[in-house]
């Protein structure tokens, strides 16, 4: 556990972070460990080569001085083809950090089993920070159908309204494993979704803020700068954005302080699993399906409040 946490553990959420660990995932882990009682880091297929994701999770844990165990989960989605995106996060997923040699090993328990075990241990208290493809959580639910009644809350970074970042419609996490996303959304969890466009607007770090973080000089700030440097350049050069976007970190921040989510709506959401729109998020804005709302969807967030929280954590 990070000795420089912002408040006593007793006052914090009990959490797991489910991560395809690369660049912004490390920042999300930094926030989750500082703002909550982080019981585990679970690793799932997504951003980069799976072996590198495991190394990155262990490295981040060691760098931050955490006691949170790392559990290895699914090394592929449930179905279909997918791709890693080293061009976004760097060859090993850690930006300019090229030597990732953790000394510790992951736990022997399969991540979905660890999720079930921790949900039972902390019944109705555990919150899952699902900032990656939802394969691990879907597999845990399929094995233990009572899981939605055991877990207090699931915070999902995923989906796009219309501006997909992987296809014209699909955001990366939902596109990587749309079957898992559909399983999780249909399972009965208490879910809040933070979609791509909200993060693109409210989780962007502009140059002046980047320089401010760089000037902090703390270990956490140095990790932020080094791990996110390649992703920042990709965002600016390939996506024509004016800074780096931190969707996982915004999701963790909202889980900690829900006032950061300025606008939220209860809606029914599903995920397309076929064809060129695979991974697309289908939102029933007008109640046309007649189905009850199954998620709380964040539609607008407070960027200034997010940046303030991020910098406060990175400064410690």
Keywords:
nine-stranded mixed β-sheet, Inosine-uridine Nucleoside N-ribohydrolase, Chain A, single chain, disordered N terminus, 40% helix, 316 residues, two-stranded antiparallel sheet, alpha/beta
Structural description of this entry:
It is a single chain. The protein is of the alpha/beta class and 316 residues long. It has a single domain, classed as Alpha-Beta Complex (Inosine-uridine Nucleoside N-ribohydrolase, Chain A). The chain has 13 helices and 11 strands. The strands form 2 sheets. A 9-stranded mixed beta sheet has the order 3-2-1-4-5-6-11-9-10, with helices on both faces. β1, α1 and β2 form a beta-alpha-beta unit. The radius of gyration is 18 Å and the shape is globular. The relative contact order is 0.16. The N terminus is likely disordered.
Quick overview:
With 316 residues, this protein is α/β, with parallel strands linked by helices. The chain has helices at 24-35, 50-64, 86-89, 111-121, 135-143, 147-150, 172-176, 178-186, 196-202, 207-216, 219-237, 247-256, 303-314, and strands at residues 13-19, 36-43, 70-72, 126-130, 153-157, 191-194, 204-206, 243-245, 261-271, 281-284, 295-301. 40% of the residues lie in helices and 19% in strands.
The percent of residues in helical segments reads: 40-55%
CATH class: Alpha Beta
What CATH calls the topology is: Inosine-uridine Nucleoside N-ribohydrolase, Chain A
Low-confidence stretches: 1-10
Beta-sheet strand percentage? 15-25%
Number of strand segments: 11
Structural class: alpha/beta
């Amino acid at each position: 556990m990070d000795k420089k946490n912002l408040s006593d553990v007793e006052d914090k959420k009990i959490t797991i972070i489910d991560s395809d660990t690369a660049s912004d995932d490390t920042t999300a882990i930094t926030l989750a460990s500082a703002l909550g009682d982080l019981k585990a880091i679970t690793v799932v297929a997504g951003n980069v080569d799976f072996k590198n994701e495991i190394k990155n999770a262990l490295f981040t844990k060691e760098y931050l001085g955490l006691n949170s165990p790392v559990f290895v989960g699914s090394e592929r989605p449930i179905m279909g083809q997918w791709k890693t995106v080293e061009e976004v996060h760097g060859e090993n997923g850690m930006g300019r950090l090229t030597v990732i040699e953790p000394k510790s090993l992951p736990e022997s328990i399969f991540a979905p089993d660890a999720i079930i075990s921790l949900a039972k241990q902390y019944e109705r208290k555990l919150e899952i920070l699902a900032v990656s493809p939802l394969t691990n959580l879907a597999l845990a639910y399929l094995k233990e159908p009572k899981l939605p009644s055991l877990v207090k809350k699931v915070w999902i970074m995923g989906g796009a309204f219309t501006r997909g970042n992987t296809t014209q419609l699909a955001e990366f996490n939902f596109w990587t494993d749309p079957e898992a996303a559909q399983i999780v959304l249909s399972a009965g969890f208490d879910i809040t979704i933070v979609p791509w466009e909200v993060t693109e607007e409210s989780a962007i770090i502009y140059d002046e803020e980047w320089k401010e973080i760089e000037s902090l000089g703390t270990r956490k700030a140095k990790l932020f700068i080094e791990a996110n440097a390649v992703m920042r350049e990709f965002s600016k050069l390939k996506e024509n954005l004016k800074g780096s976007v931190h969707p996982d970190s915004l999701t963790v921040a909202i889980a900690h302080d829900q006032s950061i989510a300025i606008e939220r709506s209860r809606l029914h959401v599903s995920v397309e699993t076929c064809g060129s729109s695979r991974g697309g998020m289908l939102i029933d804005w007008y109640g046309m399906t007649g189905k009850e709302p199954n998620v709380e969807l964040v539609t607008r967030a407070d960027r200034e409040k997010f940046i303030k929280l991020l910098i406060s954590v990175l400064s410690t």
